[in-house]
């Protein structure tokens, strides 16, 4: 791994911790959907050539790591120059991710015959490098997940990964928030400037390379039949197998089926669940029969591509027809919206989890499902 020339000497990390971005800690960083699609027309030619490899490897070995993040961080590390090598006191770093030899060998690569490595070395072959480095990155991801969950540090996990990569994982584990300030975790002013500059630089690439992933056009979809019934008790049958629904939420469920079709593999909605005891959250609308969760993809995974677009299509439609359907609020992609919510940095406002859910988790942050609560 090499340090980007943004304010200090290179600091070698011993682990990579890629997780999910919720860019809330550093106010100067650009806001972007952490699992937005890569815009192939915007990325370097060398990155576009390897995009199918990145998508295949992340999907198979690390669905938590968005391909957009691979493209952006490799650009920050090597400029997508597979032959890049930087000599330093630790023996140097090489290849797309600029890994040092110890980390490359730990990932399963071959030791270098010389420094810099010869042109035929596997660390300098772009496809081999990515297929070796991404699973290694993901292995460290899961270790970091436990650390952040245990400590409750507020740093966005993918930002913690960047800190780890540029300055060492001790800067994450040894600092109060996961991003060191001067004097924390052995980080002086030069170190802090390096970390902050690196975070900013990668976020700039995320913004430049990401395809817009947010509210989508719904002009082709029919409007729902407005709800005109009465009653707010949990008296209607729950078609998803739960105990009951309120008349309002059952009407909303039926209208979604009419417009989007029933939940089914390969459809825009893969699965749906409404009534649930939710014993861990006494304030939930699910045990009141006033809420449903719609999954455009597999539960526990961050949707991408068509699945992500399907989720946005449903969320956009529900928002547009909130009055007709008596929608109380929506949660989707780490964002909360209600008829009374003012948009801030995009759609609605950042979802905090309310002290009950981990907002960086695929399910806890409502990235894998659209939650709709009805007002009655």
From TrEMBL:
The lineage of its organism: Bacteria, Bacillati, Actinomycetota, Actinomycetes, Pseudonocardiales. Residues 243-355 form the ARB-07466-like C-terminal domain. Pfam families: VldE. It comes from Pseudonocardia petroleophila. This is ARB-07466-like C-terminal domain-containing protein. Gene3D superfamilies: 1.10.530.10. Signal peptide: none annotated.
